Amino acid sequence: MKLFTTCAVVAVALTAAVPASAKGCLKGALVGGAAGHYAGHHGVLGAMAGCAVGRHEANKRARLERQQQRQAVPR
Questions:
Q1: Residue 25 and residue 10: Cα distance in Å, rounded?
Q2: Calpha distance 23→58 (Å, rounded)
Q3: What angle, 0 to 180 degrees and rounded to 10, lies between the N-to-C axes of helices 43-72 and 25-38?
Q4: Residues contacting 25, CB < 8 A, separation 6+
Q5: Which residue has the higher pLDDT, 50 or 75?
């Protein structure tokens, strides 16, 4: 239960701080927090790393989608 509470607090704090750029961060924080918890009681560190990885992957996916849309538009 402590793990869930920690992940929830981190997710809410990150969402409240930057609501527009939380895409990918919440999911990554939850997964990273759980992995960090089971890998040696480092849930908070795992949540922070998961958030960073989630944001990176979300930005990468968005960039690829923008490139595909530009290529699909005939000129």
A1: 10
A2: 7
A3: 150
A4: 11, 14, 51, 54, 55, 58
A5: 50
At CA 58, angle to CA 73 and CA 5, rounded to 5?
Answer: 150
CA distances from 65 to 23, 28, 72 (A): 15, 20, 11
Amino acid letter, residue 42: H
Residue 14 CB contacts under 8 Å (≥ 6 apart), including other chains: 22, 25, 26, 29, 51
Distance CA 20, CA 59 (A): 13
Q: What is the pTM of this model?
A: 0.62
Query: Residue 18: what residue type?
Result: V
